[in-house]
Amino acid sequence: MSTPLLKIEGLRAAYGAIEALRGVDVEIHAGEIVTLIGANGAGKSTLLMSMCGKPKPTAGRILLDGQDITGLPTHRIMRMGVAQSPEGRRIFPRMTVLENLRMGAVVTDPAFFDEDLERAFAMFPRLKERQHQRGGTLSGGEQQMLAIARALMSRPRLLLLDEPSLGLAPIIVRQIFQVIREINASQGMTVFLVEQNAYHALKLAHRGYVLAGGRVQMSGSSADLLGNEEVRAAYLEGG
Ligand code: ATP
To answer: Which residue lies with its CA nearest to atom 18 of ligand 1?
Structure first.
C-alpha cells in the first residue's frame, strides 16, 4: 500500500472544557474525494480546522504524505500543500475577485499566476466576468466559487472544503459539486469534503466517514454508506 496523502491518528481537540474531537482516525489517498458527514456539532468543522492548526490538537497526529504537520502554524501547513475553503466562505469582501485570487496565490511561485488564473476562470466563468467587482457584492454561489478558486490558486495537494453547499439554491449546489468532480477528474485533486448535505456528498465522493460526538461512527465506500440503513435513517431521509 502506498503512503496515504493524509493520515489522521487518534486526533483530539477541545474548546476549553468542551472536547470536540475524541480520537479521530481518517486516511485519504491521493486522487480520492472523501466526505465527512454528520449532524450539527459532530465536530466536522473542528476536524478540518485543527488540520490547519486551529484549534491545536491536544492529542494524536496528522501526517501529510508521511510528514507530521500536527499543530504547525497555518501558513506552514498551507505551504506544505493544504488549502481550505472554510465554512461561511470567508472571502475578503472589500477586495476584488482578482485580489482575492491573488491572496490565494501568495504561497506559490508568481510565475504560475497567469496560468493558474486562466484555469480558475475557465472553471468559473462567472468569476472572470466579475473579476473587478468586490467580493462582498457577489451572490452566495459566486462567493462559494471564489472561495474554492482562491484555495486552488495555492496549488494544493489536498483541498479541504467545509460545507460548500451551505445556504445555496439546489441548482447552484449542483454546479459547485460538478466543478469539484471535474477538478478531481481532470487534475487528480484530492478532496476532503465536509457536508451536512449527506446525500449529495456521498454521491460525489468515493468514500465517506460519519462523525458523531467527536468520533468516527462509521466509514466505507459511498455506495455502502448510501445503502446503509443507519446512515439512511439518520442522515439521508428527508434529505
Ligand atoms: P456544524 O455543521 O454545525 O458546523 P460540526 O460538525 O462542524 O457542526 P463543530 O463546529 O466542529 O461541529 O463543533 C463541535 C463541537 O465543538 C460542538 O459541541 C460545538 O458547540 C463546539 N464548538 C465549535 N466551535 C466552538 C468554539 N469556537 N468555541 C466553543 N465550542 C465550540
So the answer is: 41
The predicted-structure confidence for 186-207, as pLDDT tens digits, reads as follows 999 999 999 988 999 999 999 9
Nearest protein Cα to ligand 1, atom 17: 41
Strand order in the sheet with 67-68: 18-28, 6-15, 59-64, 67-68
- For residue 119 the three cell numbers come to 484555469
Q: Does the beta carbon of 43 sit less than 6 angstroms from any atom of ligand 1?
A: yes
Helix (H) or strand (E) holding 82, with range, is strand 82-85
Cα dist from 9 to 2, 15, 68, 120, 162, whole Å: 17, 19, 11, 34, 20
pTM of the shown model = 0.93
Q: In whole angstroms, give the CA distance from residue 167 to residue 52.
A: 24
Ligand 1: centre distance to CA 42 (Å): 7
